[in-house]
């Protein structure tokens, strides 16, 4: 799955200028409570409620004594009554004698079930009793005869259900045609635990089986599934039955089907795979970019992994109602419309980047996740960390103009933000129930997973890393894996073409020699024990802070667990194997040093003026420079900032503010460093600067602190004034120049920087006079709309355009503008509308609420809205989902008073345990506590610093 809320390419805890890009926000996840299988037999007995028959299984995980081999599914959705009927015939193998078959089922009305035994040519079929245990979403088929080991049986189940009104299971989606007609379609979203809402199944990723799917539909519709159609049969005049080819062996969460009136465009890859993009008919002219990108990317992956894509086709479908960014169903990937459809005339530069990366993500999953799948959801990162990481590997080669590699470090900043809290969790974490599984879809699995893989690649070198991956994918094709399977594959691979310096030892470790001339090598003889090293990154939460003290030629190193929080007495027992890299004033060649102990010393060949660790931010750690280390770097930035790369500059900005949070540096030191930004023009350092500075005044906006708040706003505008003035109001330049322009102009206009406001007002007026027909440059639209929406009249005009189909590519930009209005009635109205889901799609509700929460006029309303509609929101978006986490954290993370903290705690404590114990709730509470502490320590200092520096 591709997350929606932690995306391109900037960390954002609050800066509203980047909201438009649905940027990284703290995602949620949960403290894991292993007690769920302690729900005992007594509970099961009582709840099954089927006379005297007890439910024969008492664990949330399915027993392993029955294994599915093949599913025959027949589904018949009725898009008028919004119901469906189903018939599932599942061939099973028995491993251990039993008289019951336990499998998953949720909200399905089962009308008949049988078990069939085959003996030679004859078979006996017996109807069986079905018990249901809803708390575990399980059913039990009770056989009248014992099921014997080694024998095959066929379980048949007839059932019916309603199409889901949420975004998971087999669910209803609607769209409006250009003529205003509302049309219905039905689509699926099964990951992680919703296949059981569409058909009874063994709904755990390790129960892989083959699927033969048949779908009945009206002749005016078409049906899609993982495999191509082999034949279509007319069952009646008004009913067609499509038979799809039998699938490869795969997990239930990857099954998919759609019944719709979509249109498509298609192309072939070099190896003859048919790629098609499906959309609602009116948007088919926005499908070409995705089609070309998918062809290029599938070709790339087949080549990179040296494993052919095993299906004959890959369909990419844009679904009008979609909760996350996209889903990797094998052969039928599904997307939110804004994650797939691109209009060359109207879409923004960031949309192009986002769409390319999402497609790259879902296609990477066809290997990582689909072909080789994690054994259980505790290792979700094996799917998601990889897919996230592969986005950068693939797109940097297939679409070099996008320069995606420049943005990678933003992922690590996002991950560190949540990973610095006590409520974080190790990458690999035990989970059991559906809400806990949902909570794994967070920044730790995705972003941290990707960052530690990138660090490992940098450590091993790209060729060794790739060779290990290919070995892993080959060895475990159509199977399931755990963490250690990956590390073993990587550890057993040696650098390609590097045989003199490295050799595979008997124990499977590669060694390298220190006498090599290549700078890519380590400074001392080391055994590359990948498993031991990577366990330090995946089995413990958080990340290290490395403190560097330079004494002459000696560099003293010290590592500790970086953790925010008032009671941050240094946590002991945490130790990482940190592959350090550094450059110095004397050498820009990257040097390396593996730190495996708490303290160590490295010796430089000569004394240096400055040293910069974590080159390019390829490592997942932050660095503190003791004594005058920071002063030397700050002078370097002020005098000659281009002496180090833009990513190194961005990482210094990030690290210096991180160190303020834990009291290692004073805020004035960090602000001193920020002064250099006056001369900065590259996207990542500019964004990182804004990401650090803007949240400070966002906290003040929610309190009565006008004087300092306004001074700080003035300081930031002044810092970027030259760069803002240089921006042209058109769409010229590279993608990164265009994204920079778009964000800077929105920031400037929102901060009421007059030259920007004047120009935006003029554009808005002309656009309004043309009744919305005038073509505005795409990169300035959000700024223009945002300024226009400040008057009631402008807001209403903008909303009247929002409703029209030909503004659909701009819907997100218009939503940003509508939700930064100062008019409280308008803000309330737009939130209410998004819950109704008629003119504003409910899929957009989470970010609309969060936009409103960032607005000084709206934060009270957003919090009230969240509280009052909690039950509805959970029903729609699912407990534990990234959408719920996005709202909980996004609405509360700019609170910094004790009253606000008490209010938030009180509300969540009043909810039932499953809600109050969500990890996102813990993160929200911890974040507010951190904000309170931060303001107590830093507010007066900021005030004084601003007085001295304005
Ligand atoms: Zn994914």
From TrEMBL:
Oligomer and partners? Monomer. May also exist as a heterodimer; with ERAP2. Interacts with RBMX.
At the top of the EC hierarchy, this enzyme's class is hydrolase
- Keywords carried by this UniProt record: Adaptive immunity, Aminopeptidase, Disulfide bond, Endoplasmic reticulum, Glycoprotein, Hydrolase, Immunity, Membrane, Metal-binding, Metalloprotease, Protease, Signal-anchor, Transmembrane, Transmembrane helix, Zinc
Give the source's domain of life in one word: Eukaryota
The free-text cofactor remark is:
Binds 1 zinc ion per subunit.
- Where's it found, cell-wise? Endoplasmic reticulum membrane
- The active-site annotation reads 362 (proton acceptor)
Please report the name of this protein according to its UniProt entry: Aminopeptidase
**BP GO annotations:** adaptive immune response; membrane protein ectodomain proteolysis; peptide antigen assembly with MHC class I protein complex; peptide catabolic process
Cofactor dependence: Zn(2+)
Q: Which organism is it from?
A: Chrysemys picta bellii
GO CC terms, sorted? endoplasmic reticulum membrane; extracellular space
Q: Name the protein family.
A: Belongs to the peptidase M1 family.
* Positions that bind Zn(2+): 361, 365, 384
Q: How does it sit in the membrane?
A: Single-pass type II membrane protein
Site (described: Transition state stabilizer) = 446
**Keyword presence, Glycoprotein:** yes
Query: One GO MF term, please?
Result: peptide binding
Q: What does this protein do?
A: Aminopeptidase that plays a central role in peptide trimming, a step required for the generation of most HLA class I-binding peptides. Peptide trimming is essential to customize longer precursor peptides to fit them to the correct length required for presentation on MHC class I molecules. Strongly prefers substrates 9-16 residues long. Rapidly degrades 13-mer to a 9-mer and then stops. Preferentially hydrolyzes the residue Leu and peptides with a hydrophobic C-terminus, while it has weak activity toward peptides with charged C-terminus. May play a role in the inactivation of peptide hormones.
Entry EC no(s): 3.4.11.-
